[in-house]
Structure prediction request, 162 residues.
Amino acid sequence: MKTTYRRWILWSVGACLAIGVWAGVAAAAPPASKTTAAAIEGGLTCQCGCQQTVGGCNHEGCGSKAEMQAMAEKEVASGKDSAAILQDFVLRYGTQVLATPPPNGFNLMVWILPIVGGILGLTLVVVLVRRWRQAPPVAPAGPGTVDPQALAEVEEEMKHLG
Prediction:
């Protein structure tokens, strides 16, 4: 029985590692697509303090939004790809301008930990449910398990009370 749990845990840890490697590879290879100003604006956080993307900033007359949109349109018109444009924004505003953290270093945990936590939590639930299902049944107490002397004392007391 212990070997089954060990096998299950080893399989779960292996799956977590495989998903972590897959997530790292997927994050390192962005899909190739035509760069548009709207796509760039969706990946940038507006610097006016609203914590929305540049494309979604709803502040009327937001100077930061207008400036960032103009810069994105200028960069796209010059023929740069999205990675180079985002890098220009990071150089100008810092990494806080990115709507999603870059998948490297410490920020990689933002991408991997939820997946690993979900798998480990699911594994824990499966193990606990299996243990509960395999618990030995408790025999119901029958009439023969009561001490006759205690039963006689209870009946005597019931006669006095009622």
